[in-house]
Specification:
mainly beta; 4-stranded antiparallel beta sheet
C-alpha cells in the first residue's frame, strides 16, 4: 500500500523557516512527479510547488516564489519543502502529492484532482 507521510510542520513566527518532508517508501518514487499543496481554513486546496522526476525542474505558485524551495532525494524516496520568510498567510495544512509521469521533464499539474497519491497533511501555523 502506497503511503505518503509528511512531517516537519509546526508553529513559528513570521519571518522564520520550516522544512517539510514527505516520505514515500512504498512508492516507485523515481517515476512520480512530487508536489506540495496547502489548504487554509475555509479555503480550497491550492498548489504550492512541484518538482519533476528528473533534472530537478521546479515550479511554484506566485505567492511562494522566491521564499519556498522544493527538492527531492530519489535515493531516500523523500521530497522536501524548505519554507523561508514565512508569512501569516502561509498558515494551513500542507499536503504532499504524487502523480505518475513517463517523462523526466514533465512538470506537476496544478489541479489537485490530477494526483493519485496524497499524504495525510501536516499543520503549519505562522503567527506574528
Amino acid at each position: 500500500q502506497v503511503q505518503l507521510v509528511e512531517s516537519g510542520g509546526g508553529s513559528v513566527q513570521v519571518g522564520n523557516s520550516l522544512r517539510l518532508s514527505c516520505a514515500a517508501p512504498a512508492l516507485d518514487f523515481n517515476n512520480y512527479v512530487m508536489s506540495w499543496f496547502r489548504q487554509a481554513p475555509g479555503k480550497e486546496r491550492e498548489f504550492v510547488a512541484s518538482i519533476t522526476r528528473g533534472f530537478g525542474i521546479t515550479s511554484y505558485a506566485p505567492s511562494v516564489e522566491g521564499r519556498f524551495t522544493i527538492s527531492r532525494d530519489n535515493s531516500k524516496k523523500t521530497a522536501y519543502l524548505q519554507m523561508n520568510s514565512l508569512k501569516s498567510e502561509d498558515t494551513g495544512v500542507y499536503f504532499c502529492a504524487a502523480v505518475f509521469r513517463s517523462s523526466l521533464r514533465s512538470t506537476g499539474p496544478r489541479e489537485s484532482n490530477s494526483y493519485r497519491y496524497w499524504g495525510q497533511g501536516t499543520q503549519v501555523t505562522v503567527s506574528s
